Amino acid sequence: MSIQLLSAQELYVGDNGEFYLKKDLPFTTSNTVVTVTSLGVFSLEAGNTWGSIVEFVNGGVLAYGDGVTILPTGNNSVYAPVTADHTGDIFASYINGAPTSGTNGTNVNAVSDVEYWDLTGNAIITLPWNTSSNITDLVNNNGGVLNAVTIVGFDSGEWNLVSASQTSTVTGDLTNGAVTSDASNEVLLNDFGQFTFGIDNQIVLSTDDPFTITGINILSNPIKPTDNIRFSSGISENLDVTIYDTTGKKLRYYDDINTLSGIGTMPRTTLTSGIYFLKFQHEGKQVVKKIILE
Known about the structure:
Blueprint: E1 12-13, E2 18-21, E3 34-36, E4 41-45, E5 57-58, E6 61-64, E7 67-71, E8 73-75, E9 78-79, E10 82-86, E11 90-95, E12 103-104, E13 108-111, E14 116-120, E15 122-129, H1 135-140, E16 149-155, E17 158-161, E18 169-172, E19 177-180, E20 187-188, E21 195-200, H2 201-206, H3 210-214, E22 216-219, E23 229-233, E24 239-245, E25 250-257, E26 263-266, E27 274-282, E28 285-293
C-alpha cells in the first residue's frame, strides 16, 4: 500500500456553482486565491473569520444569517476584507480600481479614487486600508486629519456619508488601518451602489488641534506670476513646507521657515502656472493647503 501526499488545489467557483464554508470548519487553499465568476457564489455561514493576505476570494462573497462575519474579499493581489455586524444575509465584493465619478454630497470633503466595494444587506461595516489604498494623500490633501476618514456610498451620481457625520470610528495609521460605520446604526447597504473611503468635512473643521486652530491661510490666492507665495500663520518659527504637484510629486522643500508679524514667504522660483499643494508641518502635526499659480 502506498500513501500519496495530498495538496490543496486552487479553488475555482464557476457559473451557477456555489462553495459553502461552515463556521469554524478547518479550511485552507494552501496559500492560493479563490476565483469566483460573476455567476458563481462563495458563501459563508455567519460568524466566519476565514481569510488572510494569501487566502481570500477574488470575486463575490455571500454570508448567510445574522452575526459578525469577515467577508474575505480581494482583487488584483490586494486583500480587502469587509467585517460586517449584520442582520440577515450580506454580500460583498472588492474592486482594486477607481470607483464611479460623482459629485461630493453634504459633509463629504473628498472621495478615494483607488478602490471600492459592492455591498448589499444591512450591517455595521468596517472597511480596511493598506499601503496601496493611498490614504496618506487622501488625508493630507484634504485637511490632514486621520480621524476624518469615513465610509461614503454612491447614490444617483453623488457620494454621501453612509452614517451621520462624526459617528465613524477610525483605527490604525495612514498606511494600515480601518474605519467602521456608526456602531449604533446599521447601514442600509442597498441604498448605495458602491462604497469607498471619504473625508468627513465636519471632523476636519472641528478638530481640536492647536496647529489647526492657529490656522494656515494662503494670501492672494490665485498667485500672480510676479508674486511670491505668501501665507499667514500664528506659528512664528520652525515651520516646514513641502510643495507637491497634483500627481503627488515632491517639487520643493523649505525647512525652518520663520514668519514676520504672522506672515511667511516662499519664492515661486521656476514653478509654472497650475494647481499645487503645500504641506505645512510643525512639531509632528500637519495641514495641507491648495494654491493656484497664474
